[in-house]
Structure formats: C-alpha cells, structure tokens
Amino acid sequence: MKLTIQVNEGPYQHQSADTAYYFAKAAVEKGHEIFRIFFYHDGVNNGTRLTTPPQDDRNIVNRWTELAQAHNIDMVVCVAAAQRRGIVDDGEAQRNGKDATNIAPGFRISGLGQLIEGGVQSDRLIVFGD
Amino acid sequence: MSDVKKFMYVNRKAPYGTIYAWESLEVVLIGAAFEQDVSLAFMDDGVYQLTKGQNTAGIGMKNFSPTYSALGDYEVNKIYVDKESLEERGLTLDDLQHLVWEDEDEDYAEKDSIRLVTRAEMADLLAEQDVLFNF
User: Fold this and answer.
1) What is the total count of domains within chain A?
2) By C-alpha distance, which of A7, A115, A110, A35 is closest to B34?
3) What is the span of the domain harbouring residue B33?
4) How distant is the Cα of B1 from the closest Cα of chain A, in angstroms?
5) Looking at CA atoms only, how far is residue A81 from chain B in angstroms?
6) What residues form DSSP beta bridges with A37?
7) How many domains in chain B?
8) Range(s) of the domain holding residue A17
9) Are the C-beta atoms of residues B9 and B43 closer than 8 Å to each other?
10) Among partner residues A81, A120, A127, which is closest to B23 by beta-carbon distance?
11) In angstroms, how far is the first alpha carbon of chain B from the final one?
C-alpha cells in the first residue's frame, strides 16, 4: 500500500513524533511504500539538526534521517510552518536574510501542496497528532 | 493525477489558544487549488472557529475569522457543523458567521455553506471520505 504520513507534533514534547516514526518504520519493513512524510505544525521541529538530547535518550531527529536514507523516503517540512518556527535551509536563509540554517539531512522544505498531493496520490493518509 | 477524491478537513479545536485552527485553514486554502471534492467539518470546540464577532485585540493575535467567508470563492461550500457540539456549548446557528457561496449553475444564486448535522450524520460523512485531515 502507498502511504503518506503527516506528523503534527514536535519531538520530545509529544509522543506523536515517536509513534509516527515507529509506524513508518514498521510500514516499510512490511513492504509498504511511503510516498511522503509531511511535517506540519510543531512537527516541523522534527527536522532540526541542532537537537541535542541527553545521551541516554533517543535521538528523534537522527532517527528520522536514518530511516529516510535507508529507505529513500521523501521527508517534507512545511515552509509556512517552518518559517514561523525557525526551521531554515539554504534557500530559506537566502530568501529571508537569515544568518544560519538548521535543516537536518534527509529533510526538505516545501509547500502545503506537497501534503495535498500526498493525499491525492496515496492509498492512505495517516495523521499523527492531537 | 488520479481521480477526484473526497477530502474532509476535521476541525476540533478552539480558534485561539493553539495554532491548529489557523494552520488548518491554510491547508484548506492551498488544497482548494487541487480540485478535489472538499468539505469541512467542525465539531467539539472547533465550532467556536465559526462564531461571529470574534475580537482578538486583547490577546495580540491575528483575527483570522474573516477568512472563513472567503471559502465560498474557493469553491469550498460544504461546511458541516456538529449540532450536538453547538448545543453543548450553548450556541445556535445564529451565533455563527453566515457563510455563503454562489452557485454558477443557478445564475450565481447565493446559497448557505453551513449545514447542521447530527453526530450520527457526521459519522456517516466521515465514513464516506477518502482522505481525512484532522486538526
């Protein structure tokens, strides 16, 4: 089955970021195709490489990056939500005159149309959040 | 792109206090360009999103409620409101904005966008969707 996954909550703050990860991992291991993982609301904070959790805790951001790279998964951070919350890649830094970037490897910043396209193109769209 | 799907945006939270309602509306506006069969549902505290006379001056946030009246122009004209959610909060249809759309097929006659539905009817509507966005 072709799936799009929407993650609406931030890492560490809310279990949705963990549940979505475990769901995505289980789905690809079962042979399902993940068309896209779309990060929205505070979910965009899953995509900052500046996260530094304590050593004895899980690294949620690195975990996403590894999953995406291992299975060639498209991970998109919503641009409007990212701008509000300070998730920045090279293009956004240039456009908005910011002096730094923080996007983690395996993530890209794009528009909400990518979420709608996920709904159109996939067999199921699964939302993780409150 | 594949065939038209039934998209429903389910709004369950109060308009302010969290950003879910505003960012949900942003998805609806962008999604309108994709020419899917779109509807909105408002239930639980989500019914407060449609109340008229909102004033956010005291909380320093943008009052985005006027945007709902533009939905008709985006051909988003099926807005289902859960009747019980209204009643539980002491609200009636008169407390909500009068949202309308113009029907091209009937000489642009102005029609109501909001449809009050019972919880049981809402359950049926949810069941018939292809894609549900939950905010």
Assistant:
1) 1
2) A115
3) 6-134
4) 7
5) 8
6) A5, A75
7) 1
8) 2-128
9) no
10) A81
11) 25
- The ipTM estimated for the assembled molecules is 0.89
Contact indicator for B42, B11 with CB cutoff of 8 Å: yes
Q: pLDDT (tens digit, 9 = 90+) per residue, A56-99?
A: 999 999 999 999 999 999 999 999 999 999 999 999 999 999 99
Q: Tell me which chain B residues have a C-beta less than 8 angstroms from the C-beta of A41.
A: 19-20, 23
CA gap A69, B8 in Å, rounded: 32
Q: Is residue B98 part of a domain?
A: yes
Q: Is B17 part of a structural domain of the chain? A: yes
**First-to-final CA distance of chain A:** 25
Phi, psi of B75, rounded to the nearest 5 degrees: 60, 30
Type of residue found at B77: N
Residues of chain A with pLDDT > 70: what percent? 100
Among all residues of chain A, which has the CA nearest to that of B31? A116
What pTM did the predictor assign? 0.94
